[in-house]
Amino acid sequence: MSQIIDFHAHAFPNQLAVKSVPILAKKADITAVLDGTITSLLHSMDRAKINKSVVASVATRPAQFDAILAWSKKIRSERIEPFLSFHPENPDMLSCIEKIKDEGFKGIKLHPYYQKFSVDEERLFPAYEKIADLGLILLMHSGFDIGFPGSRIADPVRTARVLKPFPDLKFIAAHMGGWQLWEEVREFLVGKNVYLDLAFCLEFMTADEAREIILGHPEDKILFGSDTPWADQQGAIAQVRSLNLGDELEKRILGENGAKLLKSV
């Protein structure tokens, strides 16, 4: 049986989950499907027959890196692949990236809205260069954010401006390359050297829109993601299968592409 990898999931330390998940859900006006703990994520993975989940942290303050590193080391397992995070205002961000690599982790998550930066800001370029040089994966929130309506700091055109000077950067533009900016994704990202994940977007676009982007993009650069706890993993898999992409492409999206990308680090 083919493996399934959720390349875009979230969880929190237990005490933080109790506080943070209700606050984040209220801010975005959505209902969380899970309680945000690793335990509930693993139960969800069992129900959905998911082999591995990439758990992405977001550092909302420069001082959070050490805590994220410690927690990521604690939760890392055959089924949980932590992606760490540093804050762009951390004066030691390049050292943080090196430490992530030295500790054997494979990727980094950045979120322009919660970390207050634009994707194509030049102050991030040294970090992009370091991430690329070390062969790490960068998972970037892309497009609008449901909790920050109207702000355009993570547009597909900004991602395209980063891809050009960093062709070796393993860049994942989350949410199909740009949440709620599907036309711009087609214009600036489809066919380019960038990974697109499907987290929390298929329910916000038509099947035709999704198929056009997926079928127009390199078939090895589409990744399954759910964005749990904000979406149901089992339901997210069903959404992918409902697109009728064919067995081979479906297997690539649901797991093979993710496994190959993780193995590349």
Brief synopsis:
This protein is of the alpha/beta class and 265 residues long. It contains 11 helices and 8 strands.
- What's the CATH first level? Alpha Beta
Beta-strand residue fraction: 5-15%
How many strand segments? 8
**CATH hierarchy: architecture:** Alpha-Beta Barrel
Distance between the termini: 24 Å
Number of helices: 11
Descriptive notes:
β2 (about 50-55), α3 and β3 (about 80-85) form a beta-alpha-beta unit. This protein has one domain (about 5-265): Alpha-Beta Barrel (TIM Barrel), CATH 3.20.20.140. The longest helix is centred in the C-terminal third of the chain and has 17 residues, at about 245-265. The model has no long low-confidence stretch (mean pLDDT about 95). The two termini are about 25 Å apart. An 8-stranded parallel β-sheet has the order 1-2-3-4-5-6-7-8. It is built from 11 helices and 8 strands. With about 260 residues, it is an alpha/beta fold.
SSE inventory with pairings:
Elements: E1 5-9, H1 14-28, H2 38-48, E2 52-56, H3 65-75, E3 80-84, H4 93-102, E4 107-110, H5 112-115, H6 125-133, E5 137-140, H7 156-163, E6 170-173, H8 182-188, E7 195-197, H9 207-216, E8 222-223, H10 233-241, H11 247-263
Parallel strand pairs: 1-2, 2-3, 3-4, 4-5, 5-6, 6-7, 7-8
What keywords describe this structure?
single chain; alpha/beta; 8-stranded parallel β-sheet; 11 helices; globular
